[in-house]
């Protein structure tokens, strides 16, 4: 909703592999320029998500993919030249202290919450997926390998500092004029 309000002329496409998440999104009032597509990130082409897009935002996606590099290359192709990518993701900083904070939060909050809600395995997956995924510098390198330029990482404040980050990058702009 914030994106639609901030960019009143933008056409917005929301994609999610979860039918439940899309049901919740579709239940809200949206202008006709907002559409939702039920598809896994690995199948954007076959779902009719063809772009080009000025920007792509992904949250908590890449650590859950079997082949994050393939999806990053696909997203890169979907962007217009100069188009931006923003990724909000759990990616530990690489510092031992941040790994210890994550472990403590998992043992004291995340896994007990999963047990209380009856979905312990989902919360165990969260714990494992974060510790097994790229560190923040590793994900920056992954983005660069996928062709993104000007990649930078912004840590979240508070207890999530060093645990959750926002990553920004761009597809290269088209060069004007040809060298002879």
Low-confidence stretches: none
The general outline is globular
Secondary-structure element string: HEHEEHEHHHEE
What is the second-level CATH architecture of the domain at 39-92 and 132-170? 3-Layer(aba) Sandwich
Summarize this entry quickly.
This protein has 180 residues and is an alpha/beta fold.
Q: In words, what does this structure look like?
A:
The protein is an alpha/beta fold. The protein has a domain at 39-92 and 132-170: Vaccinia Virus protein VP39 (Rossmann fold). The chain is built from six helices and six strands. Strands 3-4-6-5 form a four-stranded mixed sheet. A hairpin with an 8-residue loop joins strand 5 and strand 6. Helix 4 (96-117) packs antiparallel against helix 5 (120-132). The radius of gyration is 18 Å and the shape is globular. The N and C termini lie far apart (48 Å).
Question: Which features would summarize this protein structure in a list?
Answer:
180 residues, alpha/beta, Rossmann fold, 4-stranded mixed beta sheet, two-stranded parallel sheet, 6 helices, 6 strands, globular
Chain-wise SSE layout:
Blueprint: H1 2-6, E1 12-16, H2 19-26, E2 34-38, E3 53-59, H3 68-78, E4 79-90, H4 96-117, H5 120-132, H6 136-145, E5 149-155, E6 164-170
Parallel strand pairs: 1-2, 3-4
Antiparallel strand pairs: 4-6, 5-6
Helix pairs in contact: 4-5
């Amino acid at each position: 909703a914030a994106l639609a309000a901030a960019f009143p002329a933008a056409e917005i496409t929301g994609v999610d592999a979860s039918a439940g998440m899309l049901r919740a999104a579709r239940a809200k009032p949206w202008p006709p320029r907002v559409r939702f597509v039920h598809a896994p990130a690995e199948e954007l082409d076959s779902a009719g998500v063809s772009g080009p897009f000025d920007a792509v935002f992904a949250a908590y996606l890449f650590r859950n993919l079997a082949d994050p590099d393939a999806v990053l290359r696909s997203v890169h192709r979907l962007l217009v030249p100069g188009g931006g990518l923003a990724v909000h993701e759990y990616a530990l900083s690489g510092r031992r202290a941040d790994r210890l904070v994550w472990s403590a939060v998992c043992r004291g909050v995340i896994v007990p919450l999963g047990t209380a809600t009856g979905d312990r395995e989902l919360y165990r997956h969260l714990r494992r997926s974060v510790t097994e995924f790229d560190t923040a510098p590793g994900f920056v390198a992954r983005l660069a390998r996928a062709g993104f330029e000007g990649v930078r990482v912004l840590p979240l404040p508070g207890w999530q500092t060093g645990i959750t980050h926002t990553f920004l990058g761009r597809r290269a702009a088209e060069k004007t004029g040809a060298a002879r």
